[in-house]
TrEMBL record:
Matching SUPFAM superfamilies: ACT-like, Carbamate kinase-like
PANTHER family for this protein: ASPARTATE KINASE, ASPARTOKINASE
UniProt keyword Cytoplasm present: no
Annotated binding of substrate, by residue: 47, 74
Gene Ontology molecular function, alphabetical: aspartate kinase activity; ATP binding
Lineage: Bacteria, Bacillati, Bacillota, Negativicutes, Veillonellales
Family: Belongs to the aspartokinase family.
GO cellular component: cytosol
Pfam families: AA_kinase, ACT, ACT_9
Record's subunit section: Tetramer consisting of 2 isoforms Alpha (catalytic and regulation) and of a homodimer of 2 isoforms Beta (regulation).
Name of the featured protein: Aspartokinase
Enzyme class: transferase
NCBIfam families: asp_kin_monofn, asp_kinases, PRK06635.1-2, PRK06635.1-4
EC number: 2.7.2.4
Length: 407
């Protein structure tokens, strides 16, 4: 007997026809006593459409009501999938995130899964059902619906797999695995047979949207190997797991990631005294705003003030504007500038540690292509450049060609 969690993304469940082919595929692949949990996303572009509906009513970030709205997308999918299984002659039951026992923090739009009380899911499996869980959503302790951030169904799937101790977690999507770069941007990108949690987490954090970063984190924490593969073909995909099972070539660079959903915030003229940076970033943290790259520089001509620049997800820029406006006078800030047309390009690879030439090569490629680098940041296994959004694809292709085309 195998206990398997299979997650199907938005493009995989975009139409009733596609849902029916998933039903056929799942039933065909199931052995007599297998137990299957399906985690599904909202159909096609439903979540984008719901966001756009909200934007037609308000530009303000109403967290709770937004989650009430966004969670409906996945609810449509689970009900239709359960009916499609029943029509095909198999018992099935759908559960919202709350019904599946997914408890999250009270952070609307970016809830974190705190625990999963999986009794109901386990009982339904025991009763012979295929269990269909709504991805991307949960409930707070006090009964409010939350969502887990864009791409959050991946996290639901891996977390549920951890909670029920599944034998496997399969992420079915519209690509047949993890590539060295987004194949939509770099047609020459290569599919990987396997990648470690650490490298995949870095790729995902730096923008490789094929997996939500927290799903990879969960996989690592519960030691659930994740198989990313195609909904539309049978071929083996990519395993995300603890280490390499094969003797893979020692890659310096494992992948090139890009993120076009970046806003740069510059706070001009912050008094150069203890406590000011703390006040600003504590205020942002209180509003659950993830701050990424941070640069603070004291003005040469006036040591009394500093300028602070940082990046956030573009989705948070309206909230950042509001939060900073509240403290602007109190902190004697001169001006606040927000540039929403920024992007990041990153190289990722555990093998780059101790190879100083990688950074120089990357900056050289930017220079050859006339691309201005605004901020650079590094971790042990990545180097990231903040550049204008319009140059991101060009930079990714050039960097990929440099590191991958020669071998
Ligand atoms: P789903 O709706 O199934 O969750 P997503 O759109 O969230 O699918 O993720 C799949 C997409 O991720 C692919 O279509 C691809 O364009 C993009 N992607 C970005 N980086 C990578 C990468 N390194 N490897 C594979 N796909 C990637
Ligand atoms: N439907 C949500 C989104 O579009 C969650 C997901 O698909 O993973 O972000
Ligand atoms: Mg996704």
């Amino acid at each position: 007997m195998a206990l398997i969690v299979k997650k199907f993304g938005g493009s995989s469940v975009a139409t009733p026809d596609k849902m029916q082919s998933i039903v056929q595929r799942v039933l065909k692949g199931m052995k007599e006593d297998d137990q299957v949990v399906l985690v599904v996303s909202a159909m096609g572009d439903t979540t984008d459409e719901l966001v756009s509906l909200a934007r037609q009513v308000t530009s303000k970030p109403y967290g709770r009501e937004m989650d009430m709205l966004l969670s409906t997308g996945e609810q449509i999918s689970i009900a239709l999938m359960a009916m499609a299984f029943a029509e095909a002659g198999h018992k099935a039951v759908s559960f919202t995130g709350a019904q599946a026992g997914i408890v999250t923090s009270k952070a609307y739009n970016k809830g974190r899964i705190l625990e999963i009380n999986a009794e109901r899911v386990k009982e339904a499996l025991q009763e012979g059902n295929i269990v269909i869980v709504a991805g991307f959503q949960g409930m707070t302790d006090d009964g409010d619906i939350t969502t887990l951030g864009r791409g959050g169904s991946d996290t639901t799937a891996v977390a549920v797999a951890g909670a029920i101790n599944a034998d496997a977690c399969e992420i079915y999507t519209d690509v047949d695995g993890i590539y060295t770069s987004d194949p939509r941007v770099v047609p020459e990108a290569r599919k990987m047979e396997e990648i470690t949690y650490g490298e995949m987490l870095e790729m995902a954090k730096l923008g490789a949207g094929v997996m939500q970063p927290r799903a990879v984190e969960m996989g690592s924490r519960f030691n659930v190997p994740i198989h990313v593969r195609s909904t539309f073909s049978e071929i083996k995909g990519t395993m995300i797991q603890e280490g390499y099972s094969m003797e893979v070539k020692q890659y310096l660079i494992r992948g090139v990631a890009e993120d076009k959903n970046v806003a740069k915030v510059t706070i001009l003229g912050v008094p150069n005294k203890p406590g000011y940076a703390y006040r600003i970033f504590a205020e942002l943290a209180d509003h659950n705003i993830d701050v990424d790259m941070i640069v603070q520089s004291v003005r040469v001509a006036n040591e009394g003030v500093t300028d602070i620049t940082f990046t956030v997800s573009r989705d948070d820029s309206a909230l950042v504007r509001d939060v900073l406006a509240e403290i602007r006078d109190e902190l004697s800030i001169e001006d606040i500038l927000i540039d929403e047309r920024m992007g990041k390009v990153s190289v990722v690879g555990a093998g780059m540690a101790g190879h100083p030439g990688i950074a120089a090569s990357m900056f050289g490629i930017m220079s050859d292509n006339g691309i201005n680098i605004e901020i650079i940041s590094t971790s042990e296994i990545s180097i990231t450049c903040l550049i204008g959004e319009e140059s991101v694809d060009k930079a990714v292709r050039a960097i990929h060609a440099h590191f991958f085309d020669k071998d």
